[in-house]
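Support case: 6-O-phosphono-beta-D-glucopyranose complex. Customer-provided input:
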Amino acid sequence: MVSRVIPVDPFDLVIFGGTGDLARRKILPGLYRRFIAGQMPEDARVIGAARSELDDEGYRKDVRDALKEFVSKRALSEENIAAFLSRLHYVSIDAKGEGGWKKLAQTMRDDDDVVRAFYFSVAPSLFGDLAERLHLHKIAGANSRIVVEKPFGRDLESAKALNATLAEHFDETQIYRIDHYLGKETVQNLMAVRFGNVLFEPLWNAQYVDHIQITVAETVGVGGRGGYYDKSGAMRDMVQNHLMQLLCLIAMEPPSRFEPDAVRDEKLKVIRALEPVEPGDIVRGQYEGKGKTPSYHDDVEDGESRTESFIAMKLHVSNWRWAGTPFYVRTGKRLKARQSEIAVVFKDAPHSIFGEAAGRHRNILTIRLQPNEGMTLGVTIKEPGPGGMRLVDVPLDMSFADALGPEGDEIPEAYERLVMDVVRGNQTLFMRGDEVEAAWAWTDPIIEGWTKRDERPFAYEPGTAGPEESAMLLHREDRRWREIKE
Ligand code: NDP
Ligand code: BG6
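Agent response - structure generated as follows:
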């Protein structure tokens, strides 16, 4: 397979928070990978901006260390690192004060052909200050773009306020709200599979689909992000954004084109069609400690915390396509394995001509987001050999790494694709303001519900599939979760 790399326009990308964890772990390594793929034009520049007092050389040294830590060894060469670092600059700036803004204005190139992009990789409390000062100092103009990290608010009210603040200085077409799940290769493949094949779409509805499962299981705990996480929990941190986006892509009607508003209009309709969730259809969990593994309470240093590190829910999308087909979603930390997948479980064949003794198997289409990105379709065939007709389920298995040749294992990471989309001016894989607000409008009453009921999450042992109660969500309906495999 020949990989096609389309160079982007020259750009000045300012990373506010350029010394922070996200910049060092994801954004800068992603830019480096795009650089070695040949996608960064000669005159593209990256400008780190944060309060730390550094000069260009000091910043380059810091980024060199980050690349060594977070880029695979085989992608690193001294020559490439040096060439990439030469594109890097640094301005010491305070989002809340006046220091550094004049220097930033002088550093930017005054050329209409150079795209100006500003990545807000700082605490959300600084988003408004940055937007205001970029405007005040005339650094951002009509052709500039801003990239806004999550969390985008913590409820509908704060999301609306943030949208309003950003809208004072930027048009919606200039605002790129990141949900990095939309940048994952397999997530985009979901759309290719649905809308690029004639095979699946006729069956993609309540008549043929029994139910859908979305699982995002992580092995990590909340680690160093306890302060943020304890105020969010799995619902705000993962469901309101990442799982919601996956659900939208699975459930939406075919957009007329793969274009920003066409796609986002369809996603918005799905979010608005989500029914409120009954308390009995929600299971929240919190990991216990085991051996040397700290408990959630230890991790967040609050023995009384009732924040969930696991959540499972049964959801309904109330429209003609999906009425009667439940969507089961779950996500959690410190589970058995890192496994993210979507399973579309089709209904039984309406009649078995082979008799019940031959056995019956359902077709299941599994889309693996990570690890081992790919898809499996379970198909029923005859068990080989004499002795009558016995049916078995065999997988038609496709791993992208195997199927797509030598580059298959070099699948671009979410952040590198998304940053390049910003430079290209393509908002298809970014959330629109109304989408984020609709997601909070659905999320808020659910959180208010369990807060009012003063519910404690169920405890679960680390290294499991979450609390036992989550299995009951499906067992009571004669269904079961797909196994989270170590
Ligand atoms: P960090 O705390 O690691 O980094 C914060 C950055 O902001 C630092 O570069 C810091 O540098 C800078 N900063 C802090 N205060 C100011 C200020 N007043 N003016 C200018 N710069 C300032 O945070 P993360 O990198 O982890 O997160 C950044 C954003 O990304 C947050 O919104 C977070 O929610 C989001 N995010 C992070 C993820 C992650 O895995 N880390 C995942 C998903 C989203 P200095 O102190 O030198 O000013
Ligand atoms: C982030 C969440 O948005 O996504 C984290 O804040 C979570 O809590 C992470 O660990 C998961 O992303 P990925 O790409 O590792 O599945």
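The domain at 11-149 is CATH 3.40.50.720 (Rossmann fold).

Case will auto-close in a few days if no follow-up is received.
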